[in-house]
Design brief:
single chain; 77 residues; alpha+beta; three-stranded antiparallel sheet; two-stranded antiparallel ribbon; 5 strands; globular
Length: 77
């Protein structure tokens, strides 16, 4: 996922912007990340040699974020 909600600061974060913050800052907010579609706990995947930063979650059944239309909507914002 490219987006996640931080319940710590109430802000939607793009994975790229989240990854650019200081590691200690990220660590303090990682437990408060949730999926924007279903509210499931989310986690941050730091960038690596071949992969871009991203968020992940174990989505609840019927999560709106997993539907194609929602993904296109978030991409266009």
């Amino acid at each position: 996922m490219k987006w996640a909600l931080s319940t710590t600061d109430g802000r939607d974060w793009h994975a790229r912007d989240f990854s650019e913050r200081d590691p200690s800052w990220r660590k303090s907010r990682q437990r408060g990340l949730v999926c924007l579609g279903c509210g499931s706990p989310a986690f941050f995947r730091a960038p690596s040699h071949k992969k871009t930063p991203a968020f992940g979650a174990r989505h609840k059944d019927g999560c709106e974020l997993l539907k194609e239309v929602w993904g296109v909507f978030r991409y266009l914002q």
